[in-house]
């Protein structure tokens, strides 16, 4: 990756971080340090990723938890491996069963949208296949923080407070444990205040000691199943017992001499690749050129139209992912882009709340890892006495029987969380990711373009002002977005709105490796409390 290490066109208090022995980049400084400690203890990048991910369930519970899902891209042994750690819907659920309870769409909170949590199994699978240390060892830092507590960082406190206000609207006995766990003083903890969760620590300890067996087939599985059943939910212990993460072949698209990799559906990484495949057919003149940003927005709109129509459990997709990534389909979709903002519609290819972390070690191993409960803390449910906040991924299913992502038993839903990875000529450049619901593929496209088209180093590529397509012709730009550029986009027909803050524009991490020296260069998003820990 060619970039000027001294050039930073955007205001930032951060410079890129360099190291040779190892690096961990994520949104919480203590979590990054936890991963670095594991590297120094003799673990590899995979061990560090697990340690960081587990620590984030404690250190950033506003975005992920033990009861959530995870995806990983792992470069090791000269090859990129993909792990789908998302869980399916319960075996007993159906459109008829949900509609029979009076719902026109799957609710956001409560027991109905709860799907099988995949994160603990993903940790165990990564540890067993590629880790050097035991799972119990890699979870030690997370256990310590849960037992002893830690002071909240500023962005974390802000998001925690907003979540508390949202969950206050949830009525029912089933939500009581959430408040007892995450608002023990009757309010959200504030920046600088200590929060601890002994139940969380004990659950992590049991997961580590049993390689996650306790969570899926032991006492923890019993407690999850009993709790959900007590409030009329669908998830059962049998669903947990049947679950296993899936190793998958990552999907790619070529972009100006590089290969950009994503996890295949059910993840929405395909959206980012479709957009880049479209943009490959255009010359982008400048980073803050209105024509460049216009084409990026239009490409994302077309990509989301395809994604929203077709992405679901890959075993049940009506169109194979590879069909969206052909050169001919990219040209066809690109031909729809004019000088004015358009209304996106899905094409028809022919036969021809999330945390993100990146790790690397001195041996060449690199990991792109993402983990989430969805919509912040998830379902609003915490299994009493465990600290397990259950996700609400089922909310994304459609109750329309004709929709590709319709609710069905034992099915993975369209998933927002996506890790990214970049290679060139078969060699790793490194992991990257931007967390934040529908912002994620948009963030991937903007960061990749910043790095490849405009040669920005990792920190500058992350700091560059972002736009976010919302719906139809509505585009949100963050406070630091250039006003003349926003005005020029408005003249092209985009409905431009300026956000008052940057919390919805994603929080990313990047680690690139120099192919000759092996030196690592990392950046962490200035929109969050993160850091790059290195040695």
TrEMBL record:
Pfam families: G_glu_transpept. InterPro entries: GGT-like_enzyme, GGT_lsub, GGT_ssub_C, Ntn_hydrolases_N. Gene3D superfamilies: 1.10.246.130, 3.60.20.40. Keywords: Transferase. One of its GO terms (molecular function) is transferase activity. This is Gamma-glutamyltransferase family protein. It comes from Paenibacillus hemerocallicola.
